Structures are given as C-alpha cells and as structure tokens.
Amino acid sequence: MKQVSVVIPVFEDAACLKDLTRAFTRVEEKLKPKQVELEYIFIDDGSADETWQTLKALKEDKNNITLIKLSRNFGAVAASNAGMKYVTGEAFTIYAADMQDPPELVLTMVDKWLKGYKHIICQRNSQRKDPIPTKVFASIYYRLVKFLLIPDYPKNGFDIMFWDSQFLPLIRDTSKNINRSLYAHWLGVKPFIIQYNRPERGYGTSKWSMSKKIKLFIDSFLGFSIAPMRIAVTIGVLGALLSFLYGVKVAIGALLGKVAVPGYASTIIIMSFLFSIVIGMLGVIGEYIWRIFDELNKRPESVIEEIIK
User: Fold this and answer.
1) Which tens digit of pLDDT belongs to each residue from 101-143?
2) 70 Cβ contact list (under 8 Å, min separation 6)
3) What is the pLDDT of residue 88?
4) Most Cβ neighbours (<10 Å): which of 61, 83, 156, 243?
5) Closest Cα partner for 237 from 278, 282, 288?
C-alpha cells in the first residue's frame, strides 16, 4: 500500500473542516482499489476560533491525521513548510482548507503519479469572480512572471502541486522568502498539467490580503531574478545620460552666450529626477540585502506549540 501525504494549512477554518474531511474520505474510498492511502497533516496557523478544537475532534475519528499547532499566525507558506517536515508518504501535495480546489483532484494526480510522473500541477482554466483590483493585480503579476522569469508559466497560475517524495528535501528546505510555485518551475522538472475549473468560495472570505499579495509579488521577482536590479541600473544609466546631455546643452549655450540667468525650475526638476532614481535603486538593493539578512540570522520560520500524532 502506497501512501500520499496531504499537507493542509488552516487559519480560522473551523466552519469547513468537517466537510473537507468528508470530501477527502470519499477520495480515500476511491483510492483503495489503487492500493493508495492518504495521510493528513493539518497545521493550525495561530487560529483564534474553534479550529484547533475541531481538528482534535476529527483526530478522534481518523488515525491517519497528524495535528500541528503553531504558536501564532506565521502565514500559509511557513505553515506549509512546517507541515512538510512531518511528511512520511511516497508522494505529497499541499491543499488549502477552504475547498476551493476540489479534493477530487487528488484522484487524478495520484493516477498520473502511478503512471510515472514525478511532478503534477493543477492549472485553473479561468479566474474566479474576484474584485476588479484583484483581477488587474493578478493579470499584471502573471504577465510579468511570463515576461521576466518563466515564459511557459501557466496563464492563470496554479495553486496545487503534487510531488514525488524524492523532491521533498528540495521543496521543504528552500529559502523562507521564496515563491514555491516559481521555485518548482526553476527546478526544471517538467510537470504534467491538469486543467480544472475552480468553483466559487463556499466558506468565509479570502484571507489573502493585498499586503500579502504585494509581498508575494516582490518575493517572486527578487527571489528568482536579478532583473529588478538591472532595471534599476538601466534607469540610472539613462537618467545619468540624459542629465549629461542636458549639461552639454547648457555648457554649449553658455559658450555661445545664449544662456540667461540659470533657471530655478530646471534645476529642481533635474535634482528631483536624479534623486528619485538613486532612492529607487537603493530601495531595490535594500530588498536584496534584507533577504540575505533574513536567511543568515537563523530566525525560525515558525514555532510549533503542540503536535498530536
């Protein structure tokens, strides 16, 4: 009997956990003829509601559940990484608890894994009915990813990855400030792509705030590319060139006696332009330096308060 580990980070998801486990139980029944069983690793990411109590009640009915309680909310990525430390299956996947990604997808992914595919991803055919700002942000993000980082990156992105456990150390022990889906492509293992339609949210509201999206945006490009630095340098060089040409023009005008009293406005415009370029470049450099510092200071990505196996 082969085992697949399902890592599920949860944050104040008490309302949907029972339906989630029922859905996965139906998946388990369909996997039995394939000689595959599931292992669940739930990580409570500092929930303030009844999530932990609900998880403990579910644990009483199912022996194949491991519960991990973090000391506070560290974020979904940190919670997932904490859960991956306890993966024991021959393959693993990470699932959101809100059931927007149908648990039945595990059946298809397991089938492809049994046929020899080591990396499977589920690609959304269309975006959800999100607010316009969210759609615009997502569209810009994916276009930039395809243009600057990964030309063959899925148009609407993906949230589900299924890996053979031989890649577990590579996925689990990566940088704290790295986009896992981009990192998976960077590894070079060609994925088998499963197309699916993502249903409407059935429980609660998204906890993926704009600040988290902006952090993901920054981490994606600073973690995988030197392009931001080169863009900043290019802008700096162009700005310096334009300023030099303007200086030559002023010097020639002065030699020809065509320059009146130096203009206050032009001086301020040039100084503001150059200082904005310098500040922008320093900001980009600072972001890279912060990531170096964050990796070197050995601060734990998350703190586990309790484990129930």
Assistant:
1) 889 999 999 999 999 999 998 887 765 566 677 677 777 777 7
2) 43, 44, 45, 46, 78, 79, 82, 302, 303, 304, 305
3) 93
4) 83
5) 278
> What token pair was written down for 64?
């194949």
Give the type of residue at 224. Answer: F
Give yes or no for a contact between 158 and 114, defined as CB atoms under 8 angstroms apart. Answer: no
Neighbouring C-beta atoms of residue 215, cutoff 10 Å: 14
How much is the pLDDT for 24? 93
Pairing of strands 158-164, 119-124: antiparallel
In the block, tokens 């088998």 appear at 192
pTM of the model: 0.75
Counting as low any pLDDT under 70, the low residues of the chain are 126-131, 134, 156, 175-179, 181, 185, 199-213, 215-217, 220-225, 250, 254, 257-266, 268-269, 272
Q: Measure the CA–CA gap between 60 and 190, rounded to whole angstroms.
A: 40
The order of strands in the sheet holding 2-10 is 192-196, 119-124, 158-164, 91-94, 2-10, 36-44, 65-70, 304-308
Kindly report the length of the chain: 309
User: What DSSP assignment string belongs to 39-101?
Assistant: EEEEEE-S-SSSHHHHHHHHHHH-TTEEEEEESS---HHHHHHHHHTT--SSEEEE--TTS-S
